[in-house]
């Protein structure tokens, strides 16, 4: 059953020419899971670039986020949109894997640390990284800092990423960074923090190398790291 939501005028970005991309983004915004799944499937069967289809889904999610911030949408609508997006990603993932490079670009450990159970931003980053050829070790949510250390010791990744939607995870991020340092593992990885509540000040507090609220910027940073072009000044 479709979740009941209030009706709002479409954003101007949806009505320019009635393009297929606006139809898919609009379906995300209007919280129509079956329509989104159908549109994604049709785009893929027609041979469209799965990365472009994913970008259109993310555009819809961005609009949902704007409406939540403005008070037009409530938490229930935000959570439903996240489930719709996850379902779309499940359809896309086999196609994204085929379109990625044949050899792994690098390895990343991702986690939402203890104190936070939100995973949408982390999941978006994980999907984009896999599409670009990275091996992603996703530890999930509410992860104890010691678990991160164990995984880094086991897998020896190029990067470690922490995601947060609420500030209660900041102390766990800092603790995890400290444990990596104590274990002699910190110098071997680049540490990223991301999510809507993170800022350059949070990057400094945690002791990270990179911070962003944009998953695409996170991917670009990861690519620069494995390409040997990353800088601690990012």
Molecular structure report:
The chain has 234 residues and is α/β, with parallel strands linked by helices. It has helices at residues 20-29, 33-45, 50-70, 75-99, 120-131, 145-155, 170-182, 200-206, 215-226; strands spanning 106-112, 134-138, 159-163, 190-194, 210-212. The protein has two domains: 12-99, Methyltransferase, Methionine Synthase (B12-binding Domains), Chain A, domain 1; 106-226, Cobalamin-binding domain (Rossmann fold). Residues 1-21 and 229-234 have low confidence and may be disordered. The chain is globular, with a radius of gyration of 18 Å. The chain has nine helices and five strands.
Give the SSE map.
Elements lengths: L19 H10 L3 H13 L4 H21 L4 H25 L6 E7 L7 H12 L2 E5 L6 H11 L3 E5 L6 H13 L7 E5 L5 H7 L3 E3 L2 H12 L8
Parallel strand pairs: 1-2, 1-3, 3-4, 4-5
Helix pairs in contact: 1-2, 1-3, 2-4, 3-4, 4-5, 5-9, 6-7
Brief summary:
With 234 residues, the chain is α/β, with parallel strands linked by helices. The chain has helices at residues 20-29, 33-45, 50-70, 75-99, 120-131, 145-155, 170-182, 200-206, 215-226; strands spanning 106-112, 134-138, 159-163, 190-194, 210-212. Strand 4, helix 8 and strand 5 form a beta-alpha-beta unit.
- What low-confidence regions span 5 or more consecutive residues with pLDDT below 50? 1-21, 229-234
What is the third-level CATH name, the topology of the largest domain? Rossmann fold
Q: Which outline best applies?
A: globular
Category from helices, strands and their pairing: alpha/beta
CATH class of the largest domain: Alpha Beta
Largest sheet report: 5 strands, parallel
- SS element count, helices: 9
Could you give the order of strands across the largest sheet?
2-1-3-4-5
Radius of gyration: 18 Å
The percent of residues in helical segments reads 40-55%
Mean pLDDT: 85
Architecture of the largest domain, CATH level 2? 3-Layer(aba) Sandwich
Amount of beta strand: 5-15%
N-C termini distance:
45 Å
Full CATH superfamily name of the largest domain? Cobalamin-binding domain
Order of helices and strands: HHHHEHEHEHEHEH
